Amino acid sequence: MTAKMKRREFITLLGSAAAWPLAARAQQQAMPVIGFLSSRSPGESAGVVAAFRQGLGETGFVEGQNLAIVFRWAEGHYDRLPALAAELVHLRVAVLFAAGGPPSALAAKATTSTIPVVFSAVNDPLRIGLVSSLNRPGGNVTGMSLFTSDMIGKMAQLLKEMVPGAAAIAYLINPSSPSEEIYAREAPVVASGLGLRIPVLNASTEHDLDDAFASLGKTGVDALVVPPEPFFDSQRDRIVALAARYAVPMIAGLREYVVAGGLMSYGASLPDSYRRASIYVGRVLRGVRTGIAAIGLGSRIQRSSRYSLGCRRY
Fold first, then answer.
1. 79-131 pLDDT per residue, tens
2. What angle do CA 48, 52, 54 make, to 5 degrees?
3. How many Å apart are CA 106 and CA 119, to the nearest integer?
4. Which candidate, 112, 48, 104, 105, places its Cα nearest to that of 73?
5. pTM
6. What is residue 150's DSSP assignment?
7. Is the pLDDT of residue 306 over 60?
8. Secondary element (H or E) of residue 191
9. Nearest in space to 198 (alpha carbons), one of 165, 159, 170
């Protein structure tokens, strides 16, 4: 073999090697990317993220093998969500998954009308204007709804049974939440039906939570209802500790509060909602249009009733 031929073969081999990163990059670009937008925090969301990955696995998608996931966390600051959603849209994700209830879902919808948006654990998407129909939501949005506003009266009823002498049961409400108006409207209806006084306590920051619990004695509150709400859920350890500190019986809308040491809960399974919503994501990645994918209702039943009732044992 002549020196000229050896040189030509070496240049050809070098050229092929230079193309390897390009080929690898092309394969990476071909892998779909999911944008995971959450109003919550990464540490306390480990369980629901695991459920999200589980649902993707059920549809044949595994992170790192045939898809990638990019996370953005608002950590309870809902005003950060529009910018975080814009970041994910700029990355040209294949699907935008809105985790952490209505705040994330509404921010995602407002940011893009072309990228498919799948939401999880949204309370009454019709009433908050997220979709126009449950059966055929239209546009680029679909997902899972828990309809937690339907169960808030039941939560007060169960708490009344636990504390039969209660004359006032407060509702803890986040005024910055899109569901605030729904919960606030339910309060007088529930009060009338149970013969109770139901004051509303507002909290949208950690400091607000401290003030709300400190005011319980002054307002004559005997017990407290904490509905499912992303900021509250991310602060569940703090809320449980405050309830213990002020010795107020409390019912929450998620089992995770009982796991954290709370008294009782009544609600659907949040991890199961994430799992089922991620199955929607898998279907969208395989070509199902969001506009014709009906909104999923409820979640896995954890006992014999529609919602689970969990009580902490002492």
1. 999 999 999 999 999 999 999 889 999 999 999 999 999 998 887 788 888 88
2. 115
3. 9
4. 104
5. 0.80
6. G
7. no
8. helix 180-194
9. 170
